[in-house]
Design goal:
Blueprint: H1 4-7, E1 8-11, H2 15-21, E2 25-30, H3 36-47, E3 51-59, E4 63-66, E5 69-72, E6 76-83
Length: 95
């Protein structure tokens, strides 16, 4: 990956992920080809925090129906990033 902003696509903000933020864990949609090491470096560089752990999951696209036509949503990759004690990502706080 060339640029760190190509690795981290967007944050995931749901009730479940907001509850994880209290445990210092933040969830992001990341590039499908990104490795845990690349995700760690990207988060540390973008948000200026210390990352302790990265957990990744490959999410499969769901089946969607439009009338008689069936298709699948695209597959995507999710990363749950655990930050060191005392670090916070201020942009996502208060959501």
């Amino acid at each position: 990956m060339e640029f760190v902003h190509d690795i981290i696509r967007k944050p995931i903000v749901t009730e479940k992920t907001v509850a994880l933020m209290e445990q210092n864990k933040y969830t992001f949609v990341v590039d499908n080809r990104a490795t845990k090491t690349e995700i760690k470096r990207a988060v540390e560089k973008i948000f200026n925090v210390k990352v302790v752990k990265v957990a990744t999951m490959n999410m499969h696209g769901k089946l969607r129906t439009m009338g008689r036509t069936k298709g699948y949503r695209p597959d995507w990759k999710k990363a749950i990033v655990t930050l060191a004690e005392g670090n916070r990502i201020e942009i996502l706080e208060g959501m």
